[in-house]
Design goal:
The protein has helices at about 5-30, 30-55, 65-85, 90-95, 100-110, 120-135, 145-160, 165-170, 175-190, 205-235, 235-240, 245-260, 265-280. With about 280 residues, the protein is mostly helical. The radius of gyration is 18 Å and the shape is globular.
Length: about 280
């Protein structure tokens, strides 16, 4: 991994670690579907405007089928699930669960014959499962059904993230990282659009919620996705998912700094197991 790749990886982790506090503030106001829709729509339009200004063709018509597939499965679905999870669970805890994405990536890759499953990787999956069990064992009044649904939604989002590498390998066909960053988000906005009347906003927007939503759209989507797809192009999908090593560190830090969140010791122990499992799964 080159120095620019490392810098992009750390910057991406810092931005995506901040996405969880952004969602934690915005989602209880806008609801899961509106939060996801406005995130990808504003982020995608901002990125598309920048690409047009710099003379880069996003290939929206040429790669429309690919953008719709990845936009629906790899962006619209996990963003909506994470927005729901952020309504009922701490941002820092969700950032820890996000580290399971490479494990789902291995499972999907093995299912489609793209990854080899070894004993070391199976041990990594076992460690990850044990870590999830610890993370999902809260203490006190948060141990209600909504919390467990939030954990399930976060894991579902990671499962959807894991299949993105398989989809890119089979359907990309020359799409550029910057084109994917814009096209996939706009396709996700199109997929979520029919759901907006069915799941209305939860409350009237506040200035704080709007500011966090803009941070989610402009930073965690418009800025972050070109970095991510560039890493996929340079390092491959599995190695690019190693960004999940760093996201929990930033997620816990931002959650503590800006939301005053604290987690039980079991969550940190579970996070350590998840990161150890991720290391075993992604190690060459």
């Amino acid at each position: 991994m080159t120095a620019p790749d490392t810098a992009r990886l750390v910057l991406l982790a810092a931005i995506w670690g901040g996405a969880f506090p952004f969602m934690r503030v915005a989602a209880p106001v806008f609801g899961p579907v509106w939060t996801a829709e406005l995130r990808v729509l504003l982020g995608g339009l901002a990125l598309l405007a920048w690409l047009r200004f710099t003379g880069v063709d996003a290939g929206l018509r040429r790669h429309a089928r690919f953008y719709l597939i990845v936009g629906a499965i790899g962006i619209a679905l996990p963003f909506a699930l994470y927005s729901f999870a952020a309504m009922h669970a701490p941002a820092s805890l969700l950032s820890i669960l996000n580290a399971t994405a490479p494990m789902f990536g291995l499972a999907w890759g093995a299912l489609f014959g793209d990854e080899r499953v070894s004993l070391r990787r199976l041990l990594g999956l076992a460690a990850g499962l044990a870590g999830v069990a610890l993370v999902a064992a809260p203490a006190g009044p948060v141990a209600d059904a909504r919390f467990f649904w939030a954990v399930a939604a976060a894991l579902g989002a990671c499962c959807a993230y894991g299949v993105v590498g398989v989809l890119i390998k089979r359907f990309a066909r020359g799409a550029t990282p910057r084109g994917m960053a814009a096209g996939n988000q706009l396709a996700a906005a199109l997929v979520l659009l029919p759901l907006l009347p069915l799941v209305p906003a939860a409350a009237a927007p506040t200035a704080l919620a709007v500011a966090n939503l803009l941070g989610l759209a402009l930073l965690a989507s418009a800025v972050a996705f070109p970095l991510y797809f560039r890493l996929i192009a340079d390092l491959g999908a599995t190695r690019a998912l190693t960004v999940t090593y760093l996201i929990p560190l930033f997620g816990v830090l931002w959650g503590w700094l800006f939301l005053g969140e604290t987690l039980p010791a079991s969550a940190f122990a579970g996070g350590a197991l998840i990161l150890a499992g991720t290391a075993l799964v992604t190690r060459n």
